[in-house]
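Lab notebook page, bench 4
Experiment: in silico fold of construct C2
Operator: M.H.
Input chain length: 420 residues
Purpose: comparison with the prior construct
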Amino acid sequence: MRPAARIRGTVELPGDKSIAHRALIVGAMSGGPSLVTVRAPGADVRSTAACLRSLGVTVDESVDEALTHFTIAGFPSRNATVDCSNSGTTMRLLAGAIAGLPLRVTLDGDESLRARPMERVAVLLRAMGAEVTTTDGHAPMTVHGRRRLSAAAHHLPVASAQLLGAALLAGLAAGGATTISSPGPTRDHTERMLAGVGIRVRRDGSVSTVNGPATPSPLSLVVPGDVSSAAPWLIATALHPDAQVTLTGVGLNPTRTALLDVLRRAGAEVEATDRGMRAGEPVGDIRARGGGRLAPVTIAGTDAAALIDELPLLGVLMAATGGELRGASELRLKESDRIAGMVTGLRAIGASVEELPDGWSVTPGAPRNAAILTHGDHRIAIAFAIAALAGVATSVELDDPACVAVSYPTFWSDLEGLAS
């Protein structure tokens, strides 16, 4: 991959996988029939659908051009061992849903997923009466659920929408109000979705509350475009001297749009236009133009949590502008140690980088050719592809370009279209 002479075009993004995971699981908890339509679902979303099938739920698929329609019927009804593959969201949210069902389910995954922490979600579910065992705090994780759980007041150890979502889903089987407080900002997709299917749920600041017992109504929705999949093109456009990109039908949930604010602070030209609501989520178009002078970027504290998926791409931005990331130790617990992986890759493309326990400090250097070890991590692969596209590296070779399909199966064709 080499720098593009210019970047131009309009992109329809894959459906938001955070919303798609929740829609599939809530559809199954309702018993259906439910219909969830997702544009270009990635491997993670398909993992959730496959796990639900293993639990006895009927999940049929039909394809209409780039749209996949998932038709869901039946409740989870089987004891099983399910393969979550590489998807931590699948594992944690399903654990919460299963906790309120009379089932014994073992949740497992690939080598990467087995390395990620699962004791945090186990602690939450045990507090509500489910029996949960982990393997030294990791997967395989077995959840022996109960038809009726106890309501609890949870205080999350970290700001995590996956932990929050698991506790809210378990709270549907509890008698009374289950409350979850977070030490920082988290996405509110679970609350929005549950409210849309008739559940009494609310968020007040950093505290979310759900009242149970309750069963969701069946749902029918078209998932908005994934704003995290917008990030590569926004970063590339901001960095490139001759770029203009429009992204259509993007989810603009305010808990997910911190990147737009960061880019504007850096001096990038980015505009979002509201187009109404879809599936309880604000949706619109984003337009960006390159060629501007960018200032160094500093990210710390709650900003790091709000930008967790976009931080590798922001590392590439820092390789061109300079900057620092602090407060992002959770990056070490993702599909790979993203701090170590990004530091190595940023040095390879020519930046001077100091690795920090919870981030990095970057000084720009002369762009270089680089061979990048992705560690099978889709976020790292996408970040360094954008480094090449935008000219932050003179060329990039990825050891595993196919890993982007976890979240963005049409990434390479979209990149080719914008660079042509």
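Observations: The chain has a mean pLDDT of 97. The chain is about 35% helix and 30% strand.
Next step: discuss at group meeting.
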